[in-house]
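User: I'm putting together notes for a lab meeting next week and I want to include a structural view of one of the chains we've been expressing. I don't have a solved structure, so I'd like a prediction I can at least talk through. The sequence is below, exactly as it appears in our construct file.
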Amino acid sequence: MQMLSDLIKNNQSFLIKRTLDYAKLHNYTKYTSTLEEAWVVSITGLSTALLNASSINPQVPEIEVEHDFAHNPMASFGIKEAQKHRQRGVTLEMFLGLMKYYRQTYLDLIMQSIQDQEQRHLYMLWVTRFFDHNEISFCSEWTAQTKQTIISELQAANRNLTNEKNKYVTIFESIPNPAILLDDENRCINMNYAAYQLFQANHQSPGYIYYSTLSLQPQLKDLLPWLNSEFMDFYQGDAFEFSLEKDFELPNQEKRNYIIKFHRMLDVSDKFEGTIILFNDITERKKIEEQLLHISFHDILTGLYNRNYMEQELIRVSTGQYNPVGFISIDIDGLKLVNDNYGHDAGDTLLITVAQIIKKCFHENDIVARIGGDEFAALMPLSDAIVVQNVYRKIYEEVAEHNLVNLTIPVSISIGWSVGNPSVIGSINEIIKDADRMMYVEKQVNRLKYSTLFGERSKEYGQKLFKPVT
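Assistant: Thanks for the context. Below is the predicted structure for the 470-residue chain, given as structure tokens.
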């Protein structure tokens, strides 16, 4: 019997699928489990019983006239299954009917796998007798109980089923993420408490839809019209699940961001065809991601772009698509002087002030960054020499105007500029070097001028100098 044992052990998937196919074909799945694992457990239990019996008695187990089925090891599986299914309210006729197709599945496996006719006949007869023993034991156990015992069993089973149902209803309602169940015609057959609160915008208690006597089965296109287009693409396709990211505006006009997942129901019996829609609120996560992204590309103190972002943009504009490219190099005069005399808070005030002056001189498409302690730079794609030179002059004009109005925050900066075609030159570094050279020439003069300005303002305003403007 070793060949039969190996054949059954190695073909559990075939046995599961073939039995399920028979059950679907003859409508038994209306009354059976919808989950694949239940069928796996069923076939595993039956195969284990069959293999155990074959190891005990390799001879064909014939049925003797005075056979004791109640104490026969070969029939013990049938007795246990009879007790279990009777308590679930399954009729003897229904159970025996499905068992005929379990038997047929094992015989099908032997028929298509064993070529030797004599051996095939032996195995088929052995399996047939195994099922005969168990089917007789089903009937014996089923009919041995009194009507009152059967009623009591059914009452106990019903209570257990009710408790089981209530447990899963409670779990469904307690899930913090909104969940919606759709039938095969895209009607909403249930939604949990989180979904009801989100989409219905009122304060009904958990379980309102499940226990309501009202007809609450709107089409998804009516319930969530903003989601219907994406859902219909999924519904009409063949994907098992699909996820998308989408914004949803709450009744108070607050926008929330969701990962929405469409998932077809796991039903191997095809009894409950439909879709589960799950909503995962990622609004706070998105905010954190945006903050981290902002920090990675921006200078925390001034709010301008940082060196990292500037370097990426330099690569981008070096392709030749943004010629001509202008570059402005800016350095603060006297930052160390301010830090040494008034502290780093005063130096921060000076940096922030300069950043504000610079930023308003450029267009939206220009990239303005703080690239070092007292160094700033601006990248100007698609800007010729006239445009860049005008900005250069405007910055100096803004600084002069600032010093006339804001007497307690004296500012001086040195600027250099250059324009070129990076793709022609071969590297944007030459443009930057030209701007830096011009800036350093100006700095030699401006450093002394700022030292004089700083001394005058310090003498006049003392500790009032470089206080943040509120």
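A couple of points you could mention at the meeting. The chain has 18 helices and nine strands. The chain has a mean pLDDT of 88.

User: Perfect, that's what I needed.
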